[in-house]
Design brief:
This protein is mostly helical. The protein folds into 2 domains: 2-71, 434 Repressor (Amino-terminal Domain) (Orthogonal Bundle), CATH 1.10.260.40; 99-191, no CATH class. It has helices spanning 2-15, 19-26, 30-37, 45-55, 59-62, 73-134, 144-167, 186-191. The chain is rod-shaped.
Length: 192
């Protein structure tokens, strides 16, 4: 009887039906409904059958013989399938979120590297140009011209990386300030 009482109360809640509606639809007094839901009195089978119809649950559910309140097998299958699909969707969204966190970490690492590396390359490049200006014979030294060539390539790569990361919103626009456009000196033009 405790199961029937608990299930009647639960079924009424699932159906969203108020006490006064049950009184009218079942044709019993409000006191009788309260006593029934509190387990004071037992209900005739006809009342339980009528309650099952009104609350749109199976009689097996009210008697505690089934855990699922749904009467229609097709609706139950559809609901179970929807729950299954929702579980798959949540699992897939979890995978996507984990991948996004991983990619966000990778982007952050790349950003930090470009923020540090590109200006460092630029500083070495500028220092080397100053050294070249102060030592005009540098490019004629053994391996002097290749050093200048590879510094040019490194500076260009750092600038391009910074530009791409600014273009895609990974770095702020201010990061381009470390790359002022310079006119090549006569020495640079002759040896590049």
């Amino acid at each position: 009887m405790k199961t029937i009482v608990a299930r009647l109360r639960e079924a009424r809640g699932l159906a969203g039906i108020y006490d006064y509606q049950v009184v009218n639809w079942l044709g019993v007094s409000a006191t009788k409904i309260t006593e029934l839901e509190e387990g004071i009195h037992t209900a005739p089978l006809s009342t339980i059958k009528k309650a099952a119809e009104i609350f749109d649950v199976s009689i097996d559910y009210l008697f505690g013989e089934a855990e699922d309140w749904e009467k229609c097998l097709e609706v139950r299958k559809e609901r179970d399938f929807s729950v299954h699909l929702q579980g798959l969707l949540i699992a897939e969204q979890t995978k996507i979120a984990a991948e996004m966190v991983k990619q966000n970490g990778q982007i952050a690492a790349l950003s930090e590297a470009v923020i540090v590396l590109a200006p460092a390359i630029r500083a070495v490049y500028d220092a080397m140009l100053r050294f070249w200006e102060l030592n005009p014979g540098f490019d004629e030294m053994v391996a002097g011209a290749p050093v200048i060539h590879y510094l040019d390539l490194a500076d260009k790569a750092g600038h391009e990386a910074t530009c791409k990361m600014v273009r895609y919103g990974i770095l702020p626009f201010e990061e381009l300030n470390s790359y002022s456009i310079q006119e090549p000196t006569n020495q640079m033009v002759n040896h590049v």
